[in-house]
Structure formats: C-alpha cells, structure tokens
Amino acid sequence: MPAPETLPHAPVLLDEIVELLAPRAGDVVVDCTFGAGGHARALADEIGPDGTYIAIDQDPDVKPLFAAFAQNSACAARFVRANFADALADLRAEGVRADVILMDLGLSSMQIDRPERGFSYSRQAPLDMRMDPSRPESAATLVATASEADLTRWMRDYGEERYARPIARGIVRRRAQAPITTTADLVEVVKSAVPTAALFGGGHPAKRVFQALRIVVNDELGVLEEGLEDAFAMLAPGGRLGVICFHSLEDRMVKRFMRDRVRGCICPPGMPVCGCGRSSAAAAITTKAVRPSADEQDVNARAHSARFRAVMRREAA
Questions:
Q1: What are the start and end residues of each CATH 3.40.50.150 domain in the chain?
Q2: Which of 14, 119, 242, 270 makes the best surface tag, with the fewest CB within 10 Å?
Q3: Please, are residues 56 and 128 in contact by the beta-carbon 8 Å criterion?
Q4: For residues 275 and 278, what is the distance between their CA atoms, to the nearest angstrom?
C-alpha cells in the first residue's frame, strides 16, 4: 500500500461541498466514508481548532490515512471503524450532535486501484469486493452459492443489467464445471453470456454485474437506508446533511429521503384546512442534484457519474 501522503486521491465536488455544507469554526463534522481523506482536509480547515472531525470507515486500510490526517489537522479528530449505519447508530446513542454530515458513497481510489481487493473488472484478482475484509461472504462466495433466481434478481435490480438472466444461467453452468474465483473468471462468463453486439459500446460489459455483486456483498442499500435515518436524527438544529451518489439506485433513495423531510403537509390537494398536522423537518440546500463541472470530469474521470444532494435540518425539527 502506498504511503498515506503519496496515495493518489481526487475528492469529488470538493469546492461545491465546502460551499453548500458551509462548515463553520467549532462545528462537529461527521464524515461517514473517510476513504483517503480528500474531503476531510478541506472541511477540517473550516472548523478549526475548536471543531471536531469524526471519521467513519469500515476499511481497515484507512486507519494509517486517518492517522496522517489527524496528525496534520488543527481540529480534534476521532476515527470509528465500522460501516456508517452501525457507527451513526452508536454515535447517536452517545448523544453526539453533528453540524455537518457527509456521505460519499463511491468506492475510494485505494479500493479500485488495489487489484487484490477484487473490485475492478479490468484487473485479474481474487473475486472479493468486501469493503470490510472481515465480512463473511465475498463475491466469490455469492457466485458459488446463490441460486440462479437470486443472481438474476440482483443483477437486474441492483445492476440494471438487461442480460441478467442469461448471465446468471452462465454463472450456474460455469460453476458446475469449475469454481469462479477471480475477477477474470467472472468477466469471461459475462462476455460469453451476452450477445456479441453488447460487447462493444456502453462501457465494459461486466460493469453492471460487478456493481450488483458489490452492492449485495456490502449490503450497500440497506446500510444507506439505515444510515440516512440516523444521520438526519443526529443533526443539530440547522445542521446540514450532504450525500454524494454514483449510481441511480442510491440517488433515487437519497432524493426520496430528502424530499420526504422537506415536504410539509401531505393532505390531498384542495383540502381547505390541513388535517395531517405535518410540518417540514428540513429545508433543501440543493433543489436538484449538483453535478461535477466539465473541467472536473476532464481531470477526474471517476467524477462523471457523481450526484450531490443536501438538506438542512430545521430549527424546530
């Protein structure tokens, strides 16, 4: 692993996030996916020596990166190793109140660029995909044991893969002959299962399959659903929650969650008097998803699919 100070990392939408989440001197910031700390350095500069930065990450490889960040930051810093749903629940139980909470739901550079982690479909490696290596099931375990119906459903629902059924059938057929244990094994199955025309254009043919398996291995949507609830509940009045998404499933979930909290009365249109008594719990900071600029996308290709949304908890929420 490269030394923390030399690890390449380009934080997505950095300027926009600092501006929209507006961290102030003395704030408590919770970074739900610390990664290589790209956003952390900019946010920590804003909260200064009276602020507190709480970094969460389930990847053990992050610890030396956090240590380097903490050593060079003026603010108080704390690291919690866990998935952010569990960590936020624990912090909330401790009574922590946050002024800023950031979730960056993309894979970090160190996960993608280290072949042995098994996230990349373009490199030969063990088929792993666990963000936390202590999780019991790797992607190889899933493709070895899951039913054809489950494989089809995962690829269709989580990868939006149009050839989910033939790929699932190909996985089951292949594993009956020999185990699928590497990224190259899985890519070979995908390529042999989809029509020839699908191999050209539209990106790598295994991209959506790898996305689906990664989501299942790490329970990403379940963690996000739980984490959003606890994150919003942890916000101090006037606190800001921002989320960076990289695929449509996450973005739809975040958009729906934020819209429901911004929305007040839910009575049917035409009701002369509100009968539901519901008031808005949040104010929108972003009215639509914020996208990286063309310049940022040119410099950082991984920023292309990023979407950022943010809300502020109302004083009376």
A1: 4-110+220-313
A2: 270
A3: no
A4: 8
Count CA within 13 A, CB hemisphere, residue 199.
Answer: 10
Whether pLDDT at 8 is above 50: no
CATH number of 136-217: 1.10.150.170
- Asked: is 4-110+220-313 a CATH 3.10.310.10 domain? The reply is no
Record the pTM: 0.89
Task: Please give the pLDDT value at position 110.
Answer: 60
User: Left, alpha or beta for 59 (phi > 0: left; psi -120 to 50: alpha)?
Assistant: beta
Q: Who contacts 86 (Cβ-Cβ below 8 Å, separation ≥6)?
A: none
Measured distance CA(276)–CA(25) in Å, rounded: 39
Provide the pLDDT for residue 118: 59
- Tens-place pLDDT, residues 155-182: 999 999 999 999 999 999 999 999 999 9
From 79, 74, 97, 91, select the one nearest 241 (Cα to Cα).
97
**Per-residue buried b or exposed e for 2-14, using 16+ beta carbons within 10 Å of the residue's own CB:** eebeebebebbbb
